[in-house]
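Sample entry (271 residues):
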Amino acid sequence: MATLPDEIRQFCSNNHLHLNTDLGQHFLIDEEVLASIVSAAHIEKDDHIVEIGPGIGVLTRELLKHASTVTTIELDKRLIPFLKQFTKASTGNCELLVINDNALTTPLPSTTYKIVANIPYHITSPLLRHAFLESSLPPTTMTLLIQREVAERICSEKDRGMLTILVQLFGDPKIVRNVPPAAFLPPPKVDSSVLQIDCFSKPKVPPDVLEEIFRLTKIGFGQKRKMLSNTIGALPEGDALLKNTNIDPQRRPQTLDIDEWIELAKRSLKH
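Predicted structure, serialized as tokens:
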């Protein structure tokens, strides 16, 4: 019996399929990593799974064995017939919906769903913004195979970025496992990680505080090498804001945790 890597290579060869790495097309060929993704997602038999960038359906085929509905969103039109062909024998009682569109503009479901995906790395930030900020209903969980450096930044407690703050306002992230380049066809130039986000039923803060956090983080991280005294402190009453929040103005934005940004935003709205 052919191994998964051999099966995928043979499938691509038989169909004269050449991958577009500019679109982030790196097919996962490691069965252990596939199993880790499915396990981390905690898929129930009545779950609706949304998969971004399924390619020919390597992960899709596994998702179909566990969920009731799998919706795939694939930008590359030429891959759609290959996706249907590769997953044909695995649908069983699961409904497969295939959408040929841009996942960053496609409306996500209005009923409960989970996102499980090996996503093109360059869309990580916009996809998270789309799921959390632009959708009528955020997912209950997100299980994503993304660039390791980005996953580590999202989960960091020392070197945070704007993406760290965004994710931690909407969910609890953790790294399930790291994944080497050899797990993909073709291998990417960077290491990857499986990131699991257990999403909150609603954001940590109300909309006005959320908006103010994004305003302040944009200012702070706009010049992240500068001390807060030169960014937040330069705002009207900014020095008083930092002082009243007990935040040292000589700190830099990446050292502030989510609770400190929340407190800054709340006090800023009172001024």
